[in-house]
Write a structure and sequence with these properties.
The chain has 21 helices and 14 strands. The strands form four sheets. Strands 7-6-5-11-12 form a five-stranded parallel beta sheet, sandwiched between helices. Strands 1-2-4-3 form a four-stranded antiparallel beta sheet. A three-stranded antiparallel beta sheet has the order 8-9-10. Strand 9 and strand 10 form a beta hairpin. Helix 4 packs across helix 18 and helix 18 runs parallel beside helix 21. The longest helix has 25 residues. Bound molecules: arginine. The site of arginine has 10 residues, from helix 11 and strand 11. This is arginine--tRNA ligase. It catalyses: tRNA(Arg) + L-arginine + ATP = L-arginyl-tRNA(Arg) + AMP + diphosphate.
Length: about 600
């Protein structure tokens, strides 16, 4: 059946005892000590990385060459980089990780991990759960991730989908690390577009009354927001009289007029329902805190910028001139109106001072890089961001392209509707699953097919997005993302289901086994798989360092490849090593599931 197996203990936070950090991190600590002991006169951060070629070793330390350069000309300077390397190796503290070291090239130090160490680390993970493998250093940190952030009454388009998917994965990674994550939806819910929307709605109601209809607010007024926006925009562009009324409506709204606010609230609520439908399908949780939230703070922000001499009047607008930028950041227009940037400045202040953020991360398309550079620089000038304080990062991403290599649009040239896109992915998956069931002569349980199709379809859309380096533009192709082979979610979901099937078939309590069966790593393929499993925390460290979810997808894909190669050479069921190999299977499944979870993909347990 599709029911998940029992799984390892689900401890959400690592206890002191089980948190172990990454192997690379532990090796770095050992080399840090060795560097200080061998060459106390020069400070050097350990440079430790996984070896590209397993023939040389598992990890390498690359400090010797640079250190040799630094030591040149000092008393008793070493004669060659290799001498530096030898001295570093000689100073390595006693430990249980390193089985053997060797020197290569001018002075690379190669490290071979102790099999016993790797085996124990895996057993420990199965027994204590994966929580202990979360990257350390982020627990308890307040991380604010500003993502998704569509605009009210406008289309939520594929750009917002990218932001939603990338932002959600970053949140999940930090949540796994034990950070206090605040997921903020900086919805575009305030601005001049509301004037025309409110006026158009008022006109429509009048027309309805004139035609004998009801004189009250009705759901149909806001049932098609895109249409409302299009119609209002058309009149705004074409009718002078309407344009003037729309402008007055904006002023009334900003002045706090109750009727205008009520109309605005109705539009926002309708928009929110549409966004929520997408979020719930994607399994994304977000807290709405739109631009309007910061409205009361804008005046004060601008005053402060003026007082501190950060903003100055130029050509009738209040501007911030910044080094390295040819155009200033405008914070207030000549007519007194505030802008997108003003709101972002207020948001930074609020997030730093009230939310006590340690790190604020913004996920938008790369087109907004300049905006964020300028906003961050302005906040620094104003003293709202300080070096020792909160860190800010803009996570920019590229465009989604259609199969023709142009910006992704429907045939009619419209932006693609997200709901339709998700429907198509799901429907295609449902068809494939039904086909498979039919071929196998199995009965079709419609509810199960629906669940599996959602997991696969939405998972495929997410994975196809996340696997690219976020700054590259990528082509949206159903055929590619739903391919059963290659680097796709569908392939990986099946790979996981197959492994889960192997473990199921053994009919053993693997967690009882894990407690008393050592994992033997005598076969080179067993060892290779085991070492890759132990590198999971490193993939996450890299993902955080680069704010790049593709580090997780790369890792996951490699893992399934390593598993396949192990499974080809190493018989599991019915072999002498069955117990130990089952543990390798289960460890692989556990780590795969964690990757899926971080990517926001629901795992499948049967094919
Ligand atoms: N609503 C904006 C857009 O659709 C994105 C907002 C991003 N977040 C922010 N704090 N500026 O482009």
């Amino acid at each position: 059946s599709a029911a998940p197996p029992s799984g390892p203990p689900t401890v959400t936070m690592a206890s002191e005892k089980t948190a172990c950090g990454s192997v690379r991190g532990e090796l770095s600590d050992l080399f840090r000590t060795a560097l200080t002991l061998s060459f106390p006169s020069v400070a050097a951060d350990p440079v430790v990385a996984a070896c590209n070629n397993a023939k040389n070793g598992d990890y390498q330390c690359n400090n010797a060459m640079a250190l040799f350069g630094k030591l040149k000309g000092t008393p008793n300077a070493p004669k060659a980089p290799r001498d530096v390397a030898t001295a570093i190796v000689g100073a390595l503290p006693t430990n249980d990780l390193v089985a053997e070291t060797s020197l290569a090239g001018p002075g690379f130090i190669n490290v071979r991990l102790s099999r016993d160490f790797v085996s124990k680390r895996l057993s420990g993970m199965l027994v204590n759960g994966l929580a202990g493998w979360a990257p350390t250093g982020y627990a308890g940190k307040k991380v604010i991730i500003d993502f998704s952030s569509p605009n009210v009454a406008k289309e939520m388009h594929v750009g917002h989908l990218r932001s939603t998917i990338i932002g959600d994965t970053l949140c999940r990674i930090f949540e796994y690390c034990g950070s206090d994550v605040l997921r903020l939806n900086h919805v575009g819910d305030w601005g001049t577009q509301f004037g025309m929307l409110i006026e158009h709605m008022a006109d429509a109601r009048q027309a309805r009354v004139a035609a004998g209809g009801e004189d009250k607010d009705m759901d149909e007024d806001v049932s098609d927001l895109q249409e409302l926006y299009r119609a209002a925009k058309k009149r705004f562009d074409e009718e002078e009289e309407f344009k003037a009324r729309a402008r007055e409506a904006v002023t009334r709204l900003q002045g706090g007029d109750a009727g205008s606010l009520a109309a605005w609230e109705r539009i926002c609520a309708a928009s929110r329902r549409e966004f929520e439908a997408i979020y719930s399908r994607l399994g994304v949780k977000l807290q709405e805190r739109g631009e309007s939230f910061y409205n009361p703070m804008l005046k004060g922000v601008v005053e402060e910028l003026k007082e501190r001499g950060v903003a100055t009047m130029d050509q009738g607008a209040l501007c911030v001139f910044l080094d390295g930028h040819s155009v200033p950041l405008i914070v207030q227009k000549g007519d007194g109106g505030f802008l997108y940037a003003t709101t972002d400045l207020a948001a930074i202040k609020h997030r730093v001072n009230e939310e006590k953020a340690d790190w604020i991360i913004y996920v938008t398309d790369v087109g907004q890089s300049q905006h964020f550079d300028q906003v961050f620089a302005t906040a620094k000038k104003a003293g709202w961001l300080v070096d020792e304080g909160a860190k800010v990062s803009h996570v920019g991403f590229g465009l989604v392209l259609g199969e023709d290599g142009k910006r992704f649009r429907t045939r009619s040239g419209d932006l693609v509707r997200l709901a339709e896109l998700l429907d198509e992915a799901k429907n295609r998956c449902a068809a494939t699953i039904r086909e498979r069931r039919a071929e196998a002569g199995e009965e079709v349980d419609e509810a199960e097919v629906e669940d599996a199709a959602c997991a696969m379809g939405y998972g495929a859309v997410k994975y196809a997005d996340l696997k690219n380096h976020r700054t590259t533009n990528y082509k949206f192709s159903f055929d590619e993302m739903l391919n059963l082979k290659g680097n796709t979610a569908v392939y990986l979901l099946y790979a996981h289901a197959r492994i889960a099937g192997i473990v199921r078939k053994a009919e053993k309590d693997v967690y009882a086994l894990a407690a008393d069966t050592p994992i033997s790593l005598d076969h080179p393929k067993e060892l290779e798989l085991a070492i890759h499993l132990c590198k999971f925390p490193e993939a996450l460290e890299d993902a955080i360092e680069e704010l790049g979810p593709n580090r997780v997808t790369d890792y996951l894909y490699d893992l399934s490849e390593k598993f396949n190669s192990f499974y080809v050479d190493c018989k599991v069921l019915g072999s002498e090593q069955e117990a130990s190999r089952l543990l390798l299977c289960e460890a692989t499944a556990v780590v795969m599931r964690k990757c899926f979870e971080l990517l926001g993909i629901k795992p499948l347990y049967r094919i």
